[in-house]
Each structure stands twice: as structure tokens, then as C-alpha cells.
Amino acid sequence: MDELFSPEEIKILEQSTHRRSSTKCYRCKHKRLPCNYQFPKCDSCLKENIECNAWVRGLNKPIPRSIPLYLEDKVANLEIELDKLKNHHVINNAEEESYTITKYVSTPLLQSFINSENESTIQSFSFLYFNSCNLPAPFDNMIEGSKRGKMKHFIENHPPVDLLTIPKNVVKIMMSNYMDFHLPQYPIISRPMLTEMLETVLNKPEIASSFEKAVISITMAISAALITNRSEKRALSSSSALFSATISTIFETSWESKMQKLQLTLLIAHYSFANPFAADIWHTLRDALRLCIDMGLHKEVTSEVITVLDVDDRRRLFLVCSGMLRHLSAVLRIKFPIHQNLISVEYPTIVDDSFITEKGIDYSGPQTKAAALHFYSFRLCESEVCDVLWYDKEINVNINDWIDSMEEKVENWFITAEEFAKVNQLRFRLICKASLQIRLRRRTPRIPNPSHESFLKLIKAVLIHVDEYLNDAKSAQVSYLLMGVHYIVEAAINLLDVLWFEIDWIKEVYSFEFLISKLGECIELLNKFSERWPDIKESNIPNYLENLKNDVIKKNDGLLNDDECNIISSKIEKLIFPTKIISKVSDDKKNDIVDNKVDINDDKNQSSDNNTINNNNESDILNFDNQNQLEEMGKYEHESLSDALFSDKSNWQDHFIDDNFWDLNDLLNKMCDYI
To answer: Which of 179, 239, 246, 623 could pair covalently with 217 via S-S, beta carbons 3.0-4.6 A apart?
Structure first.
């Protein structure tokens, strides 16, 4: 920063109110040219192919349009130069100083945690569960509870960092990254409120509340976890130490405000998407949903009762909570727990927070939160796909016409989402699009035998998935690891399904060797992901898929007999339909689903890395009694059989009703009179 601005200029920047509202770049301002101020270059500078800089009142020189991006590029160049110098064994004081700058910017806070000696004793916490997330079903049942990621071990391995030991300029860079790129997509706390909290925590720590400290530490943890393209391991180490600080601070927080509790709960859920080894996404989101219902955020209120600011806060929090939960539920094939008829709350405004005051909303302000609403429109599509294909929701058109219309919606969503790339938002729009196309074209209870055309579209979407994640993994940009694991597992399972059952005609379009290589890349990605989420290897997912890949090759080479093929067919069926969801299907189809009895753990001795499963807790979903299930089938005609089949070891059952939480359905029934 010193090479960009003098201390006097930095003071002008900090006091300036024009940085975010400038309507002209530096060149257009001084040449008096029309300027649309597009990012990263306005049309005028783009046409001339010259650098486009920002203009700030009081500074008589151009400045970068995005200081964080400028610093990232600077860091990248410093790293390249440093590598060259290291190779030639020439490092003097100047280069050593450059290395120090690189370390602090690309690896924020590393030195701070190395020196941290905080070993706070973590006590029980009644409503947030800081253990690792569940893995994709049915693999979640293959890991022993004692080997899962636990809060105690996480804190021991990542001691909390003291925020006051972090250089303030590093804190500001991290927070700027969060507020500029991530907050607009997940508007949990308004930007003015977050800015005020940051000022208090940095400059008045003696009066900062534990809630404010927790918010700043976790938003910085999210920022660090999502900036992994320079030095992934160090950035994630930084993020983990910050999250440990959040956990420690949470236990000091007095939860007098349900709104604050909800905000912090949603921030933890956001972090869980990036680091599923640190926090349980389901426990966190279900608690957030219950808070929303308890406060009535699903219902619209008039501004006569509360201020415009409060109304918008209520709307945005429900949007974020329901959006996250719709996304996760759809990926895991679990119905969204609230019927749409019970939701009357309107959407929040998309204008920048600074244009929302107690007096009203200035709709002429920049639409900085448009990405959040665009995200939510995709989440609604995800819920629709899950309800129709897995829970047989009634539709007014032919199922094939419905699928075509959904694909058109997703395509239109993707095209619009590309506009957000100009401000570095919705970066994973292609992965989102491909993931929904996979769910539309794969085998489901509603369409157990898709057409050849559907299978070909499925493979195309799977290939996009694999290639995108391979590219991101190579550049260390797999930010939201939780979905990465679930998406790649689903891609691998569907490739196995095609290679095993459809290969005879698929060979006319794709070679067997090509598809096998893509399956191998899925396994390679899961091994890579396990470096950040050790539960993946503990559950033996990569080895299990590797064994099935080898079985597919043996079948193609004619090396398996009929009995062996039948066993493997049953295993793949269990991967395709892990929770045995049954909804308005025929008796013959019920029998087909129930007849598969081969346990996914039958070949657990094929690899020395397999885990021994406690017989007392082994999941019945993989090996259950036909007669008993057929007798009970009528009870589950409109529900998932997972309630009856999953053991306590996995929480992919009904996550909203158990002995530890109050009944969400009871609460909703009690509120029906008021809706």
C-alpha cells in the first residue's frame, strides 16, 4: 500500500465518500469523456486498450479500480520473482522484504497463529454443533463416529488467533474482500453494520462485544477460506485459526437477541460450505430455520410496526436461510420442510445497504445485492426438481415437457448469471448449471429408466463437472468444498451407472476408456479433497469407488461371472438410490427397490484402508428385512424410508424432528391461525 499512496493520501482515501459512487474513471474524468464505469474497464478504456483506473476526489493521480485485485496481482508477481531468486540463491534484504509482504497478503495471519498459545477450554454449546458435516449417503455410514472430525481436535490443531495481533491493513484487505464479493451474495449482515463492527473491534476493543468479535473473526475466516488461489494450505490454516477464535468467542456471547443469534448461525453455515470439516451444516441450518420460524421471518410484516431497515433485515435473513436450506435439501434429496403456502414474506431490496435508511429506500442506488436474489431463483429450481423427480409432485404437463422447460429456465439463469462475473460474483455458475442438469437427467424414482438422449445429456453435464473441478483443484480454487464433494461423488456414481448398465450403446458416442478415465479423475479429485476433509478417506469413499471402477473394467474384459455381476449391480443400485425414497410408485417397483440386499460394506476387506463398522450401529438401510419393510411400506407412501432405515450414526434422516430439538411441524401448526 505504501508504494501506491503516501500516508496523507491514505488518509484522504479513508475519509473519502466517493470511492464507491464514482461514475467516471480517472481518464474519462480528466478528458471529459462519457464513461459507463464498467468493471474492470469502461468502454472507452477498453476501446483504446489502456488501463482503466479509478478517480477519487482529493487525489491528483489514478488508483486501481480494485485494490484487492491489484494486490493479488502484485503478490503473484512477487511470488514469481521470489521463485526466480530462490533458484539462483540470490536473496538480499530487498527480496526478503518482498517475501514478507507476499507472506502477509497471500497467507494472511500465518505468523499470528504460529505464535498463538491460546488453548481455551471449549465447553458444551446448546444449539450449534462444531463437528464435521455428514458425507454423501450412503458413504456417511461407512465412517465410525469416533473418527469423524470433532470440535475438540479442530481447536487443538488450529489454536484461536487474537484478532489484535493481526496487522490492521491485512484485516482491512480481508474484510474488503468479504464485503465486496461475498456479502452481496449472502447478505446476512448489512454492510454499514459490519463496517461499524470492524471499526469497534479494531480501534475500541475494550468496548467491543463478544458478538461483534465473533462476527468479525468468522467473516474474516470466510474470506480466507475463499481466497485459496495463492497458497491454499496457508490460507486454509489462516481461516481455521480464525474460526477457532469464533468458536471461543461464541461461548462468551450473551444471546439476548435472537436476531444476532440467527446472523451468527447463518455465518457459521456459510463457513461450513467452505470448510465442512469444521462445522455441521445440517445442525446449523436447521437451528437457523427454527429461529426464523420462531421470529416469524417467513411472514411479511408492515413497516408501520417496525422500521424499513428492520423489515429489510427480516427479509434478507429469511432469504439467505431458506436459500441455503433449499440448496442443501435438494442436493441431498430431502424435501424443503416448509410448504410454500406458509411463506408470505417478500424479497429484500437489491440496492446497496447505504441507500436504505429508517426514512425509506432510495431505489436509484446501485443494485449490489442482485446476486443474492438471482441465487435464490436457482434454489427454487433445485427444490422443484427434487420435489418432482424424487417426491412425485404433481405437474400440469408431460414429464418430458417439464424437464425441457426446467432446462430452459436453468439456461436462462446461467446466461443472466454471467453478468455478475463482472464484479466477481456467481463464479460457480457453470457448476451450478451442470449440477442441476445432472439431477434432471439421471435415474430417479419418477424416471427410473431415462431415454438414451437423457443419458447423453447426463454424461455431458458430468464431464463439465469433472473438468471444472479439475481446473479449480489445479489452481486451488475449490472454495465451497462441501458441494464439491457431493457433486463429484454424484458424478462418479452416475458414471458408474452408465458404464455398468448402458455401456453397450453408449460406446457408439463415447469410448469406454474415455469414460473410465473420467471416473478415475473423480476419484483423484476426492483424494485431493480429503486433504482438506479427512473424513473422506476415513469413510473409504475413494477406495470403494476405485474397487467398483476395477469391477467395471473386469466386466468389460469378460472376467466376471453372472453372480459377481449381480452383486455389483446391487451395489450400484444402492449408490443411485441410497435412501430408498418411495413416492407413489407401483407395487412392482417397490419390490424391485426392496429386493436389492447387498451391503455396501460387503467388500470392506478389499482394502487395508477400510474401516471396521460397529455392528451395533450398522445402518439398516443397506441390509434390511424384506417382509417387515413390505408390511410397513404403506406408512411411507409419501415419505422417505430413511426415517426407518437410518441408524443414529447418520443424520440424513429427518433432520428437523428428533429428541434434541422441538418439533418444527408442531410449531407451524400452532402458527397456522396467525398466517
So the answer is: 246
Q: How far apart are CA 577 and CA 392, in angstroms?
A: 15
pLDDT in tens, 250-302: 877 666 688 988 999 999 999 999 999 999 998 889 888 988 988 889 999 87
SS3 state of residue 477? coil
Residue intervals in the chain for CATH 4.10.240.10: 7-104
Beta strands at 360-361 and 356-357: parallel, antiparallel or unpaired: antiparallel
Note the CATH architecture for domain 7-104: Irregular (4.10)
Amino acid at position 261, single letter = K
Q: What's the CA gap between 646 and 651, in Å, rounded?
A: 8
pTM score, whole prediction: 0.72
CB atoms within 10 A of CB 618: 16
What is each CA distance from 243 to 250, 271, 399, in whole angstroms? 10, 9, 45
Could you give the CA distance from residue 338 to residue 668 in angstroms, rounded to a whole number?
A: 8
Alpha-carbon distance of 512 to 514, in angstroms, equals 5
User: Scanning the structure block, which residue is given the C-alpha cell 458425507?
Assistant: 135
User: Which amino acid is residue 31, in one-letter code?
Assistant: K
- Tens digit of pLDDT for each residue in 530-548? 999 999 999 999 999 999 9
Q: What residues have CB less than 8 Å from 289, skipping those under 6 apart?
A: 321, 322, 325, 337, 338, 656, 664
Nearby residues of 635 by Cβ (< 8 Å), 6 or more positions away: none
Rounded to 10°, the helix 541-556/481-501 angle is 20
The DSSP output letter for 300 is -
Which H, E and C letters describe 386-406, residue by residue? HHHHHHCCCCCCCHHHHHHHH
Please state, as a whole number, how many other Cβ atoms lie within 10 Å of the Cβ of residue 24. 19
DSSP 357: E
Give the three-class secondary structure for 212.
helix
